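Hey, I was hoping to borrow your eyes for a little while. There's a protein on my desk that I can't quite get my head around. The fold is given in discrete form, as structure tokens running alongside the sequence. I'd be grateful if you could look everything over and explain what you see. Here's the protein in full, and shout if anything looks odd to you:
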Amino acid sequence: MFLRLLFVLLIALNIAVGAWLLLGQNDTHARLATDPGVPKLRLLSELPPPATTVAHAASVATPFTPSSAAAPAPAVTAAPAASASILPPSPNALSYACMALGPFATQEDLRIARNALGSEVQRMRARQEQTTESKGWWVHLPPSPNHAAALAQARELGARNIQDYFVVGSGDNQNTVSLGLFKDPANARKRRDEITAAGFPAQMSERTETVPEYWLDLIPVDSNHFDWRSRVHDPAIGSHSTGCF
């Protein structure tokens, strides 16, 4: 009986010692996880926020006030640009504009003008155009169906004491009685009215011809101070603006 009791006591003592060693060792190791003087390791979530983050959060959290909305900085920076945009142009600034001179009657006239303007122009080009030019006013009777009828009209004109006429014998106006060619349209109308008053159906038409004319397109070095008339003295030459090239 005594031996049994002693055996049970020994077992209980072993259990108690084992429990103390087990629980006591864990607590000791937990407390001595680092050497003395060495800071303990912490998780990132346990660290305090940096100063910049705190400052940014404070600025975001700052309540809106009317004084902060009335900051004049944008207006101050925009003022120099606005004042610069209304500054007057410099009097020495060069101006560029494209223009055309002409029409020149011949290529030789164009060449002379081109040489005279060479130093005042940064770019030039010559071009030729076709234009219709008046060659006078023609007074005539309507064309007859044949040459015999045209001669009969001419004899009737002579019988009425009308002079200065002839019968066109060939070309586009064949069998037409011509009554004169005039430079001045007023003289042509006067002749037509005289023939009409004599009882003949006189007509008046303008005679035209397609002729070439020559132009000089140019870009002056400085349009504001470009006096082309001091170098091209032909009064028939004019100028107008044109597209640049």
User: Anything to note?
Assistant: The two ends are 132 Å apart (CA to CA). DSSP finds seven helices and six strands in the chain. The longest helix spans residues 2-31.
